[in-house]
Amino acid sequence: MPQRYNNYYIYRPSMGADNNRQKPQKSGPSFRQRFSLIVWLLVVSFVVYFAYSKHTQAITNAREATIAEAAKKSEAEAQFATQVQQIIDNNADATYSVSAVDIKTGASVKVGSGDAMNAASCAKVLTAVLFLHEVENGQASLTDQLGGKSSQYQLKQLINQSDDNAWVLFNDRLTHSALLSYARQLGLTSYDPSDDTISTQDMSSLLLKLYKGQLLGSRHTNLLLSYMQNTNYEQFIVPAIPPSDSVYHKVGFVDGEINDAAIISNGKSAVALSIFSNGSDMSDQYTRAQTIQEITKAALNLL
Fold it and tell me: Which residue has the higher pLDDT, 63 or 143?
């Protein structure tokens, strides 16, 4: 009986070709490729970091420069105020009011009397601005006849030669109520055409707006500024201005008032400077001219 199982065998499935074949390995980046990628990422990261650091440093430098410039300006303004106050104290025979305004920043320094004072002929600038404003609005023309002459001729006489007859002609045409209304629109709250008073702060503000082209178009702004050079009275602010700088100004004096209001520019920066003085009469005109020039020289440090 045992022999019957001699041919018995255990069935094992045969190992075919499919079972013996190794599965293909998935292809991936080589070591060199992986290394190049890492290097590239490091380079990009460094460039981005460097650019960001440079940009951040530039912002920091600009901020620090702005702060330093502001501190420098503030120090110059404080020194100006101190110097001018000392000059005023040393010339107590007259009452002085001084206002200086930086054309770019609008920062202002006021020294002396803060009250409105007799503007004398300095107020002629406001008259000229309002008339040119009406020209631009089509309400008037420079060719209009005024006092037997063209309005442009009379305008030059008004500003460049400080002609009082031309002032009467323009003020009668414009009216005091229109001058007052226009001044209020410009924020010149101290101006009163009935007694011709204005503060030096408002006078400087008017000059600043004019110079920056905020009142008139460029053609009429330049025309008016041209009339404010080489005028008939050049003995107050102008002698203190270096030849390399530009100055546009208007002098006014009556009774004991001696005033000069100017825009001074060195080509990079500019300041509107108004100096009003009130004395008992005009007998000290030379002394006050010297005082006004001292104040002007102090103002040059604001540029």
Answer: 143
